[in-house]
Write a structure and sequence with these properties.
GO terms for molecular function: acyltransferase activity, transferring groups other than amino-acyl groups. It holds the Pfam family Acetyltransf_1. InterPro entries: Acyl_CoA_acyltransferase, Bact_Acetyltransf, GNAT_dom. This is GNAT family N-acetyltransferase. Keywords: Acyltransferase, Transferase. By secondary structure, the chain is α+β, with helices and mostly antiparallel strands. It has one domain: 3-Layer(aba) Sandwich (Aminopeptidase), CATH 3.40.630. 21% of the residues lie in helices and 24% in strands. The strands form 2 sheets. The chain has a 5-stranded antiparallel β-sheet with strand order 1-2-3-4-5, sandwiched between helices. It has a 3-stranded antiparallel β-sheet with strand order 6-8-7, covered by helices on one side. β7 and β8 form a beta hairpin.
Length: 218
């Protein structure tokens, strides 16, 4: 798939993730876990099986993701500036946002300097649409409770809290139910900024998703 310009951002486009984006996905996992301040290094992410599993070996069955690229890169290059992707995990090796088998987990991150410009919102909307077209019916994630921008982004997209997250430091597990059938999850508790569902301001999440909360050093 070629790059598709995003609405309202003529110099930003989205394209599908390919195996060649592996290094960038590791960078995005690092941004996700360091959403508040630096707790991890790139070497640490690669050496931690619970973190590296989100990025390594892209292209396995069920992998689905998009990269946002700057069309005005040097020498005409399309420079990656963010990514959002889904990956399935087994119950024997669950991710931080694991809900149940058959439900993929979301990871989303934007490079510093490009946040709060609507890029995360556009990536998330595009990925949800692509997931629906691919037959995905539910998406889970883990988000730090204190990451208000991320919680607001996901709440506005339709995710609801379904319980305490598995990661240390205080997290929510959130779920998006995309089917119209019965069995939609009921919110458990209230994310700190759940009332933002009625707001009109969209902020990019500097991190979110199925990677370790920023407070963990694992």
């Amino acid at each position: 798939m070629g790059s598709t310009p995003t609405v309202g951002a003529p110099h930003i486009a989205v394209r599908e993730i390919t195996p060649a984006d592996g290094e960038f996905l590791v960078d995005m996992v690092l941004e996700a876990v360091n959403w508040e301040r630096e707790h991890h290094t790139r070497r640490g992410v690669l050496g931690n099986a619970r973190l590296s599993r989100y990025a390594v070996g892209w292209g396995r069955q069920g992998d689905l993701g998009l990269v946002a690229v700057d069309l005005d890169g040097p020498r005409g290059l399309h420079v990656p500036i963010g990514a959002a992707w889904l990956r399935y995990f087994a119950s024997s090796e669950p991710g931080y946002g694991f809900y149940e088998p058959g439900v993929p987990e979301l990871t989303l991150a934007i490079v510093p300097g490009r946040r709060r410009l609507g890029i995360g919102h556009a990536l998330l909307a595009a990925l949800i649409a692509r997931a629906r077209e691919s037959g995905v019916r539910r998406i889970s994630l883990s988000v730090a409770r204190d990451n208000e921008a991320a919680v607001r982004l996901y709440t506005q997209a339709g995710f609801v809290s379904v319980g305490e997250g598995k990661g240390p430091g205080g997290t929510w597990t959130m779920l998006l139910e995309m089917s119209d059938g019965e069995g939609a999850p009921q919110s458990v508790g209230s994310p700190p900024s759940a009332s933002a569902r009625e707001g009109t301001t969209t902020s990019d999440a500097s991190a979110s998703a199925s990677s370790a909360p920023p407070s963990t050093s694992s």
